[in-house]
Amino acid sequence: MEADAGLRADGEETARSALTRRVVAAYRAAWRQRDAAAMAALFAPDAVYVDHFQRRRVPGPQIEAYLRAAMPPPRRAPLQLYRDRLRVDGDTAFLRYRMAIPDMAAHGQAGIEICEIFELSGERIVAVEEMCSLALPDLDGGQADRRAAPRPAALRLGLSLPQIGALAADLDDYFTGDGPVRRPDLQLADVARETGYTRNQISYYFNTILGTRFLDFVNARRLAVYESLRRARPRAPAGGLAKAAGFGSLSTFYRVRQRLHGSGAPCRATGEGDAP
């Protein structure tokens, strides 16, 4: 009889784990489809979602709105890399993954480390605890331990880490191609207006995630455009190419080139330099 009871207990545990796995798999599938309503339908009415990064406890009736606000649009979703398979133990599930952030400044790949713990009761989720941290590269391309510093600023800006990932994807899309940087009067306010983010949010991204100032980033992109133009027109005057690349003045162009490549002076012996 005791052996039979043990077998029944093991069978019940296996069945609970299988049910938990199915529910969490449905939750993740709905997330990939950006279907906040389908995700919210898996929660019990009295469920709670705990976002530790934002220090928020979201009650059941507000979970759908929270999920909808937190998820990036489908075409802007950062790449997800799963660190571990979904682990399930009875009514509890644990998932760990990383969301890659576009590397616009070539300093190494930043990312968002996310852990989610699910608690279920029957077929409904009664609690989710989400823990996020920001993994930022150092200037040598390694992973620096700078995860705690961005949190207060992000909280003031009202951004969750997944939303920071979406902001990064939006800015990467905005700067794809060389159109914006070739505008010599491009300002942070222009980027904010044209992407729908605030100036403070964009500044946070450049300063904290990329580790560079907005103007330094734009000028580095302009220098890359200049070098591409020079390869196509090797005997064209540097001044004309610099202007076409978006530099407002030759002095700015030479200063940026000196800072990035150590070659600031015009080279009049070749077609690269301006005529004296």
Broad shape: elongated
Strand content: 15-25%
The ordered H/E elements are HHEEHEEEEEEHHHHHHH
Query: What's the overall average pLDDT, rounded?
Result: 81
The count of domains is 2
Low-confidence parts, pLDDT < 50 over ≥5 residues? 1-9, 141-149, 267-276
CATH architecture of the largest domain: Roll
Number of strands: 8
Distance between the termini: 102 Å
Largest pleated sheet = 8 strands, mixed
Radius of gyration: 25 Å
Structural summary, described in words:
With 276 residues, the protein is α+β, with helices and mostly antiparallel strands. The protein folds into two domains: 1-146, Nuclear Transport Factor 2, Chain: A (Roll), CATH 3.10.450; 175-276, Orthogonal Bundle (Arc Repressor Mutant, subunit A), CATH 1.10.10. 45% of the residues lie in helices and 21% in strands. It has ten helices and eight strands. Strands 1, 2, 3, 4, 5, 6, 7 and 8 form an eight-stranded mixed sheet that branches. β6 (110-121) and β7 (124-137) form a beta hairpin. α4 runs antiparallel to α7, α8 (214-232) crosses α9 (238-245) and α8 (214-232) crosses α10 (250-261). The protein starts with a helix and ends in a 15-residue tail after the last helix. Residues 1-9, 141-149 and 267-276 have low confidence and may be disordered.
